[in-house]
Model the fold of this input.
Amino acid sequence: MPFLEVSTNLPKEKVTPEVLSGLSKMVSEMLDKSESYCMMHVLPDQLMTFGGTSEPCAVVRLSSIGRLGVELNKKHAAKIFAFMDKHLGISNDRMFMAFQDLDSSTVGYKGTTFHELYGR
Done:
């Protein structure tokens, strides 16, 4: 159930369907999770500054049931930062990223929790 949320001051026009599908595919592959469970949520046109300027910036949050941790997060960060720079032009010194490893009992889906559905 990976969930990637990006808040950015970039205009909506910069966040194309190709960017969204690229994010989804990347997250699915790097977490080894079915893309059918991956959700991308990009919030463009946010009133944001970073370092006192309004140049392009973002805050990214990656939430997942498992597949996160000290060493894995370094690899995930490298891939996400590279994607954001290449496809949205946001340099890695203009973003913060947070990782959230969720317990399956705290994530709802299909009227219950992932723990109830999948036992993990």
In short: The first strand starts at residue 3 and ends at 8. The radius of gyration is 15 Å.
